[in-house]
Design a protein that fits this description.
The structure holds two protein chains of two kinds.
Chain A (H helix, E strand, L loop, with lengths): L2 H4 L4 E12 L5 E12 L3 E6 L5 H8 L7 E6 L2 E2 L5 H6 L1 E5 L10 H5 L1 H5 L4 H14 L4 H4 L9 H13 L5 E5 L7 H18 L2 E6 L2 H7 L2 E6 L2 E6 L1 H4 L5 H12 L6
Parallel strand pairs in A: 3-8, 3-9, 6-7, 7-8
Antiparallel strand pairs in A: 1-2, 1-4, 4-5, 9-10
Chain B lengths: L2 H5 L3 H7 L1 H35 L1 H16 L2 H8 L10 H25 L3 H9 L4 H31 L12 H10 L2 H29 L3
Helix pairs in contact in B: 2-10, 3-4, 3-6, 3-8, 3-10, 4-6, 5-6, 6-8, 7-8, 8-10, 9-10
The chains are: A alpha/beta, B mainly alpha.
Chain lengths: 260, 218
């Protein structure tokens, strides 16, 4: 379905001097001065403390929010020029609590976008099976379950499967593993890291966990109070001389094995 | 009505001798309730859906529905009699009053059900590119259904009770026995109205409760 979008080359997501304010008087900037270019196939991790504006940047990409200043281009077109429904259907979205539809089975959750896009039944069913296997869940065992019959980790797996079902070129992930226990989290991080490399999607991943950022990112973007303060490849990131970078690296050494 | 039977000490004899009348009054009563509830649902549920999107309308609609609920039922029936078209003596006026009473629980539960959904679910739905209509019909409404039904259940039980008062303005139903019983100081007559009304309420409560549990998710 995404022949047009898949053939798009160059920068998939482009922030051009973006600011987002809430409250008109007095205006309060949630993010400001954001310029960021995300090429096809890259996994960008937005790292920062709570309230640093990470989630706001995600919502600016899929048109849940629109910039107060500047412009965000997705596949070469400003988010304000997109039909928001079309824009979002080309962007997978995974959030912390998974946000699965509790009245749908696992299969129905994953099939939602294919159904809305009017795929025929055999193609949808095949896609659901394929997605479940992709995230390591046996379709025979899990397809007919409801979200309440899943563990937290399984729910997140289904959340990822649902986001990938319509084969979007872009995947946005907002602390997807944040609510899981440390063991399950590490397991999902490893598997997702392998999955991300295999899929060659453009991924924007939000976290406040430096270990997660180091594991998954092809590039880490560090945010502090709504501004980008550092951008680096994981290996270089640890060597950066910036107070906020040091704050994050020291959090690693203080509490090994139990991030935040 | 047979006066000898009314004065008879045995309630049971009275019931068996008048079972045809009691059944027919129960049926009339049920019809009043069913018609009033159907109208109240057809108004209350769509209105509840509408006020989710319109905060200004929400205050007004819930306010007016609450006011009707505070008017004593006998007074409301009385108020309606002089009003043209909807008023007068008989079933039509009674149904209007019953609808006004049933509206608040249905309206309020529809609103609460539609707005009380896990924000993560709604965020995911929006981010996946579902339209507002798709979110309403495929996500909000099915998830709110059990709560809406709980409102309908409450409203039904209120309506079965209040409908006994409708006999005061000549709408028939089980209230006819009760009012006559009070006037003639006859326990048998009062019970002939009160017992079937109570049974109807219990039955409705049970059946709608069953349905509600089946529709509840997570």
């Amino acid at each position: 379905m995404n022949t047009k979008t898949a053939s798009f080359s160059g920068n998939l997501i482009d922030f051009h001097d973006v600011a987002y304010y809430i409250n008109v008087i007095p205006a309060r900037a949630i993010v400001s001065g954001i310029s960021l270019t995300i090429p096809q196939g890259e996994t960008i991790v937005l790292l920062g403390r709570s309230g640093s504006g990470k989630t706001t940047l995600l919502k600016l990409i899929n048109g849940m929010l629109f910039p107060s200043e500047g412009q965000i281009r997705v596949q070469g077109r400003a988010t304000t020029d997109w039909d928001p429904i079309r824009l979002r259907r080309g962007i997978g979205y995974v959030i912390q609590e998974a946000g699965l539809f509790p009245h749908f089975t696992v299969a129905e959750n994953i099939a939602l976008l294919p159904t809305l896009e009017k795929w025929d039944a055999p193609r949808t069913a095949a896609r659901v099976d394929e997605m479940l296997q992709l995230v390591g869940l046996d379709p025979r065992e899990f397809a007919k379950r409801h979200p309440r019959e899943l563990s937290g980790g399984q729910r997140q797996r289904v959340g990822v499967a649902r986001a990938l079902a319509a084969d979007p070129p872009i995947l946005l992930m907002d602390e997807p593993f944040g609510a899981l226990d440390p063991v399950t989290r590490a397991e999902l991080q490893r598997e997702f890291s392998a999955l991300a490399r295999r899929l060659s999607k453009t991924i924007v991943f939000v976290t406040h966990d430096l270990r997660e950022a180091l594991l998954l990112a092809s590039r880490i973007v560090l945010l502090e109070t709504g501004r980008i303060v550092a951008t680096a490849k994981p290996k270089e990131f640890l060597l950066l001389d910036h107070p906020e970078v040091r704050a994050f690296t020291s959090s690693l050494s203080i509490a090994p094995g139990s991030p935040s | 009505m047979n006066l000898a039977a009314i004065q008879s000490p045995s309630n049971w004899t009275f019931f068996t001798e008048h079972r045809a009348e009691i059944f027919s009054a129960t049926f009339d009563h049920l019809m009043l309730v069913v018609i009033a509830m159907a109208i109240a649902i057809l108004i209350g549920v769509p209105l509840g859906m509408l006020i989710v999107q319109r905060p200004a309308l929400r205050t007004i609609a819930l306010g007016i529905a609450s006011i009707f609920q505070t008017i004593p039922s006998l007074a409301l029936f009385g108020f309606l009699i002089p009003i043209p078209f909807i008023g007068g003596i008989g079933k039509r006026t009674a149904i209007v009053a019953l609808v006004l009473y049933a509206l608040l629980p249905i309206l309020r539960n529809t609103y609460v059900g539609l707005t009380g959904i896990d924000p993560a679910v709604l965020e995911a739905a929006e981010a996946m590119g579902m339209t507002r209509a798709q979110i309403l019909w495929r996500v909000r409404f099915p998830l709110a259904l059990a709560i809406i039904l709980a409102g309908i259940r409450t409203a039904t039980i209120i309506t079965i009770g209040v409908a006994t008062i409708a006999a005061a303005i000549g709408a028939g139903g089980l209230g006819t026995f009760i009012f006559r019983g009070v006037a003639l100081v006859s326990d048998s007559l009062i019970l002939a109205g009160a017992i079937p009304a109570a049974l109807l309420a219990l039955l409705a409560d049970f059946l709608l409760g069953l349905l509600e549990r089946r529709l509840r998710v997570a």
